[in-house]
């Protein structure tokens, strides 16, 4: 004989709303945020590739006494690209480090307004750094006479990795500016929707 469920027919407590997804880009980042989140896999593969390149270098250097001239700079470049992209990746996942002493005490519409204000402040900071990076790119890509010449490392291999990295940093910062604009707009929309529903 089965016992009746005492909770059957009783009103259910509302499910707790999940403000942010546990994994992946937060909803306020929109389509760009989802694209940035998925692209992160490319840079994760780059870190794995750099580890394999270093392993190959150890075997060639100490096993065959035949080191390469490209392994060290390639691994630095791949890891640097991943670290630069990591800032943008943390933005779309809302996983950057922050002091939450006041932030955690605020809820509801006020929190969304605060998120919009934080996004706007971050937007101006990212725009300032993008402007500074643009100056670096111009020096790394153009000679004083105006002809195109990518800055190189100056080593025996001499790849143009420094110029490529500066260009990539500039592009990532520009994407960050656009992403913060999208986030600020979406946070404000969420706050206004809450206000209209209250």
Automatic annotation (TrEMBL):
<feature type="transmembrane region" description="Helical">
    <location>
        <begin position="167"/>
        <end position="188"/>
    </location>
</feature>
<feature type="transmembrane region" description="Helical">
    <location>
        <begin position="113"/>
        <end position="134"/>
    </location>
</feature>
<keyword id="KW-0997">Cell inner membrane</keyword>
<feature type="transmembrane region" description="Helical">
    <location>
        <begin position="70"/>
        <end position="92"/>
    </location>
</feature>
<keyword id="KW-0472">Membrane</keyword>
<feature type="transmembrane region" description="Helical">
    <location>
        <begin position="41"/>
        <end position="64"/>
    </location>
</feature>
<keyword id="KW-1003">Cell membrane</keyword>
<keyword id="KW-0813">Transport</keyword>
<dbReference type="InterPro" id="IPR007387">
    <property type="entry name" value="TRAP_DctQ"/>
</dbReference>
<comment type="subunit">
    <text>The complex comprises the extracytoplasmic solute receptor protein and the two transmembrane proteins.</text>
</comment>
<keyword id="KW-0812">Transmembrane</keyword>
<comment type="similarity">
    <text>Belongs to the TRAP transporter small permease family.</text>
</comment>
<dbReference type="InterPro" id="IPR055348">
    <property type="entry name" value="DctQ"/>
</dbReference>
<dbReference type="GO" id="GO:0005886">
    <property type="term" value="C:plasma membrane"/>
</dbReference>
<keyword id="KW-1133">Transmembrane helix</keyword>
<feature type="domain" description="Tripartite ATP-independent periplasmic transporters DctQ component">
    <location>
        <begin position="52"/>
        <end position="189"/>
    </location>
</feature>
<dbReference type="GO" id="GO:0022857">
    <property type="term" value="F:transmembrane transporter activity"/>
</dbReference>
<dbReference type="Pfam" id="PF04290">
    <property type="entry name" value="DctQ"/>
</dbReference>
<comment type="function">
    <text>Part of the tripartite ATP-independent periplasmic (TRAP) transport system.</text>
</comment>
<protein>
    <recommendedName>
        <fullName>TRAP transporter small permease protein</fullName>
    </recommendedName>
</protein>
<feature type="region of interest" description="Disordered">
    <location>
        <begin position="1"/>
        <end position="20"/>
    </location>
</feature>
């Amino acid at each position: 004989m089965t016992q009746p469920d005492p909770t059957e027919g009783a009103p259910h407590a509302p499910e707790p709303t999940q403000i942010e997804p546990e994994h992946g880009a937060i909803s306020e980042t929109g389509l760009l945020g989802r694209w940035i989140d998925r692209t992160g896999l490319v840079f994760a593969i780059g870190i794995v590739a750099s580890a394999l390149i270093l392993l190959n270098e150890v075997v060639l250097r100490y096993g065959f006494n035949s080191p390469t001239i490209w392994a060290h700079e390639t691994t630095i470049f791949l890891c640097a690209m991943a670290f630069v992209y990591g800032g943008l990746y943390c933005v779309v996942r809302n996983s950057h480090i922050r002091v939450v002493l006041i932030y955690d005490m605020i809820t509801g519409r006020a929190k969304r307004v605060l998120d919009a204000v934080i996004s706007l402040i971050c937007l101006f900071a990212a725009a300032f750094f993008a402007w500074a990076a643009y100056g670096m790119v111009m020096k790394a890509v153009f000679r004083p006479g105006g002809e195109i010449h990518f800055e190189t490392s100056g080593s025996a291999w001499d790849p143009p990795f420094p110029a490529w990295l500066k260009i990539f940093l500039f592009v990532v910062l520009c994407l960050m500016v656009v992403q913060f604009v999208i986030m600020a707009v979406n946070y404000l929309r969420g706050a206004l929707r809450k206000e209209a529903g209250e």
